[in-house]
Amino acid sequence: MDIKNIKSEFPIFNQKINGKPLVYLDSANSSQKPNSVINRISNFYQTEYSNVGRSVHTLAVKSTNRYEETRDKVKSYLNAEHREEIIFTKGATEAINLVASTYGEKFIKKDDEILVTELEHHSNYVPWNFIREKKGAKITFASVNMKGEVEIDEIKKKITNKTKIIAITHLSNVTGAIIPIKKIVDLAKQKNIPVLVDGTQGAPHLEIDMQDLGCDFYAISCHKMYGPNGLGILYAKKKWLDVLPPYQGGGGMINEVKKDYITYAETPTKFEAGTGQTAEVVTFLEAIKFIEKIGIKNILAYENEIMEYALEKLKKNNSINIMGNPKNRGSVISFTIKGIHPHDIATILDNDGVAIRAGHHCCQILHEKFGVPASARASLGIYNTKEDIDILCKAIENCEKVFNI
Amino acid sequence: MELKELYQEIILDHGKNPRNKGKCNPFNRDAKGHNPLCGDKVHIYLNLNEDKKVVDVSFEGEGCAISLASASILTETIKGKEFNVAKKIIENFLNMIKNEVKISINSLNEDQKTSIMSLSGVKQFPMRVKCATMAWHTLTSALEEKK
Lengths: 405, 147
Fold this sequence. Notes:
The structure holds two protein chains of two kinds.
Chain A: E1 16-17, E2 20-21, E3 23-24, H1 35-47, H2 58-78, E4 86-89, H3 92-107, E5 113-117, H4 126-135, E6 138-142, H5 152-158, E7 163-169, H6 181-190, E8 195-198, H7 210-213, E9 217-221, E10 232-236, H8 238-241, E11 254-257, E12 262-264, H9 278-294, H10 296-315, E13 320-322, E14 332-337, H11 342-351, E15 354-355, E16 357-359, H12 364-369, E17 375-379, H13 386-402
Parallel strand pairs in A: 3-15, 5-6, 5-7, 7-8, 8-9
Antiparallel strand pairs in A: 1-2, 4-10, 9-10, 11-12, 13-14, 14-17, 16-17
Chain B: H1 3-6, H2 9-16, E1 29-35, E2 40-48, E3 54-62, H3 65-78, H4 83-99, H5 110-118, H6 129-143
Antiparallel strand pairs in B: 1-2, 2-3
């Protein structure tokens, strides 16, 4: 598939926003969907839909097969050892909550430490706060340096004999820093500490091989991977899933239900209570195929090229301050403009058809560290071009004109 | 959507040079407003005398041009007003944003009316309505604070 023409695969771009062509620079928030994904969800509802895993009629069999095909596909895409290690959730947030809740319940006691970093999205901090409050545990923070990265030595320093889990992002949704997960896992293994990776931003842009990374848990957000909304994936090593208690109770996750006792199903069913996101799971197969068709390495290389171009252009504007300057970075650029609040930037850019995000991006701790309450963020997807960046820079100039800067 | 209606000169001026910024001294009522989605904050301070007149009002806060301008215009409008008049102005302002009602409070002079009306452009930008209204809701809380 030719990346240069990829925009034509995304029907959202067949429209004008405020009279201008859409320049979508908010993929770290959610990615747009290609035709193959949009068509699949519609086609599935039209021809194959039914609930999965319960009934024996023809459609139920079809649906169940399609649903489990995605599990197999995800297993191979992530290079997981077992298909039972793939759990469908309603998002990366639920995936992390699942681990925090069940692992926290079973393995974290009073005064134990949960090691996170100052880079974390609220979804990889707040769930751990529940355990802090419930168990009297402590949350320790690995500091971010002014480049916006977390150094391996800092992690080393913060690991103690009380550290019970390390929960860390793969790729910062603010500074774009790519975290050396492999090195952290090696470090953690020496002390038998499991590592949870928030792969929300990592999975859409990086090669994610569970055998190579070696982490215990990896959380994925499907709607940031050109896939459907309302779906996430938790990869977890089978040795953990076998011993962790169920997360939610309900239909499908049981083995036997009696008045005086209940036994639970085996993993992954144990962790998938109730009717899941059937059509979304089935459709996600198309999203992976889309990524595979281009190749994740090609996606990364292409996005890097656009990002370097954007960084170079933005740095030429003296009013712009880019948050962090990580050596190893993904295609996320957060910035502030002297004298213009990020919300005003976002509104004025939108008028030029440029969609960015403004705010703290669910990272209040990191923004506090950088001494700003909010920032503007441009994040890339496979459909972005150098021309998009030119339009962004022009829109920023317009923004400065409105504010007489 | 007309950008110029949102970012009028009056708003840019108040946003850049907010009036009555800081903590007025003395103050006897105050309230805080916070928009957790975007992180904007406002803290309104009031000095309400025995006759229930707002003898002084000020604000501290951080936020976008719209929210700073709105808080600034609010303080200029409310200072010197009776409690009941202040409440009516707030009601009139919120109605203007929500229901396109005109500003009709007699005790406001033309400059004050123009300033308040400059904020009406926010109507066309639904995501920014909160920026314009937060200070006014916070003022209501401060006025109604039980002492």
